[in-house]
Amino acid sequence: MPKPVIEICLGSSCFARGSNRYPQAAARWLAAHGIAAELRGRRCRKACADGPIVAIDGVEHQVPDLEALHRALASLIDAAPQSVIQRSRA
Ligand code: FES
To answer: What's the whole-model pTM score?
Structure first.
């Protein structure tokens, strides 16, 4: 089963609005929730007015801040099959 793909726009407009903080924040959130995903940067897709933009499996989300990033990533918890969720067993 392929991992979900998370693409964070690092174009100049999204970057200036804070998307530069998102790769590290997303990696931390995914690790904390035990979700294996492919995390990528991407170039501007001409949705700058709505940015920062984060696409999850091709679905674009408006992500104005870290709280919104976490909400967008949380969609993976319900959508992901168990095979991509690697929860630790304590
Ligand atoms: S810079 Fe992100 S959509 Fe244009």
So the answer is: 0.84
What is the distance between the alpha carbons of residues 48 and 37, in angstroms, rounded to a whole number? 25
In a domain? residue 89 = no
| 81 alpha carbon – ligand 1 mean position (Å) | 30
Domain that holds residue 59: 5-84
Ligand 1 binding pocket includes 55 (Cβ within 6 Å):
no
Q: Would residue 9 count as lying in a domain? A: yes
**Tell me: the pLDDT tens digits for 24-82?**
999 999 999 999 999 999 999 899 999 999 999 999 999 999 999 999 999 888 765 54
Q: Is 45 in the pocket of ligand 1 (CB under 6 A)?
A: yes
Check pocket membership of 22 for ligand 1, CB cut-off 6 A. no
Report the domain count for the chain.
1
The Cα–Cα gap between 28 and 44 comes to: 24
User: In the 8-state DSSP scheme, what is residue 20?
Assistant: G
